[in-house]
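Per your request, structure below.
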């Protein structure tokens, strides 16, 4: 069943056309098992690891259920972070590319409400949002759910964290009772199952084995003394020589401390945690995704929703306190069938956490040894690119192709010297080969982009 083609499903031919254009031909296990009951209108509680295709699964189901001629909000997807909301909306729009007039809006916190209110003046068919902002707009009367057909909780376990639980429950209470309710996550603790029993009607429960993480992700656990953790971390980063590495820390203070210590050792590193405002968070993620920062140190909460393609290495600076969190960490690498490496540091006091992880996921941990008396000399992987920011974006109708054209035109660069281009509402970031950064900056400042002069600056 797991290798069935999408064409075997009773999907709208226009959705099949979109899937073909995206080269999505064969369903992943979670798609093969969850799509038939969802398309039949059943409630579903689906458990599968990060990167397994959950978004496309419920995205296809949602798009199959809405009536595009009815200009009312018919589907709501709740998730814990703005990055995840943007990622989900992007995937749904990709799946809807051949369907006419499908409107998808993102309602995220940490940014101005004004553009979001404008997007609600004409009801979107599908809303992807964070619970706090959705609750605000519902209570203000700016958002109506009277025509809601489908409610999705993505990362359902996080939606019941203290930060989100009250808002999530308020939204659910305001939603029509006659609806389809879908829960998806990599882990389902008892509180989520309890909520499922209250909110879902005879849900079809689907679990795709999380033990598969050990098949495509090489995992090694290293016992180290607490005072030597940073030395061990630098050693692993130096010997692995990964293009990109995500380091997990428990708290925001830990993340900041690790960032500072690695920077002093010469690593190209930034941290991601709850004290960073949205604009700075966007810049951190852009710089990590485009390779101008090689190491990202993040808390578990901050890392939810990250979708960094081809992330080669994940390192736990300490083992997580909850075994289920281990799946979310490891799930950042080895995505979409690719291989990855996950390395974990732990002290003797954390052995109980290691035992809990082994018991929870039914595998025997591979223990490695570090030469603590002769650790490798710090050898940071130098970034090939630097990031340049142009203070213009989607609102200025600046497209990636326009910027690429200016760089290869007036600035005189070849395409090979230009890396990833990331566009936001009011700014655009582009990775430039660091050897030609000054050439690019001078060219953009001297010339024009789409006939206009925009402020250009180096992000460093």
């Amino acid at each position: 069943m797991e290798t069935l083609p999408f064409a075997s499903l009773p999907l709208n031919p226009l959705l099949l056309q979109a899937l073909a254009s995206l080269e999505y031909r064969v369903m992943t296990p979670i798609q093969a098992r969850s799509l038939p009951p969802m398309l039949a209108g059943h409630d579903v509680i689906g458990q599968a690891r990060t990167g397994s295709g959950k978004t496309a699964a419920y995205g296809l189901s949602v798009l199959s259920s809405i009536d595009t001629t009815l200009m009312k909000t018919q589907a709501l997807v709740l998730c814990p972070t703005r990055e995840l909301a943007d990622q989900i909306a992007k995937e749904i729009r990709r799946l809807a590319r051949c369907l006419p007039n499908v409107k998808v809006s993102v309602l995220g916190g940490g940014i101005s409400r004004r553009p979001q209110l404008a997007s609600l003046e004409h009801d979107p068919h599908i809303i992807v949002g964070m619970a706090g902002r959705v609750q605000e707009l519902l209570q203000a009367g700016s958002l109506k759910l009277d025509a809601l057909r489908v409610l999705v909780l993505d990362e359902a376990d996080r939606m019941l964290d203290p930060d989100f639980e009250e808002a999530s429950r308020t939204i659910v209470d305001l939603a029509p009772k006659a609806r389809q309710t879908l829960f998806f996550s990599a882990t389902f603790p008892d509180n989520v199952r309890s909520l499922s029993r209250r909110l879902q009607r005879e849900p079809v429960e689907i679990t795709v084995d999380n033990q598969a993480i050990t098949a495509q992700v090489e995992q090694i656990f290293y016992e180290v003394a607490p005072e030597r953790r940073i030395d061990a971390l630098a050693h692993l980063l130096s010997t692995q020589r990964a293009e990109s590495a995500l380091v997990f820390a428990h708290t925001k203070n830990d993340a900041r401390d690790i960032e500072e210590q690695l920077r002093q050792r010469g690593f190209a590193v930034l941290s991601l945690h709850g004290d960073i405002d949205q604009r700075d968070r966007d810049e951190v993620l852009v710089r990590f995704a485009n390779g101008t920062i090689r190491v990202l140190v993040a808390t578990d909460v901050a890392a939810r929703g990250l979708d960094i393609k081809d992330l080669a290495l994940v390192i736990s600076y300490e083992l997580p306190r909850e075994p289920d969190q281990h799946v979310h960490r490891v799930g950042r690498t080895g995505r979409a069938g690719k291989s990855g490496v996950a390395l974990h540091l732990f002290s003797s006091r954390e052995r109980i956490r290691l035992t809990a992880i082994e018991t929870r996921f039914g595998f025997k941990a591979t223990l490695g040894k570090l030469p603590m008396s002769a650790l490798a000399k710090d050898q940071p992987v130098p970034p090939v690119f630097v990031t340049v920011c142009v203070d213009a974006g989607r609102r200025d109708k600046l497209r990636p192709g326009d910027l690429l054209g200016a760089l290869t035109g007036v600035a005189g660069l070849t395409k090979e010297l230009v890396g990833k281009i990331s566009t936001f509402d009011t700014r655009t970031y582009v990775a430039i080969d660091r050897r030609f950064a000054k050439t690019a900056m001078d060219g953009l400042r001297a010339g024009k982009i789409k006939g206009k002069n925009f402020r250009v600056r180096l992000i460093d």
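The radius of gyration is 23 Å.

Regards,
D.
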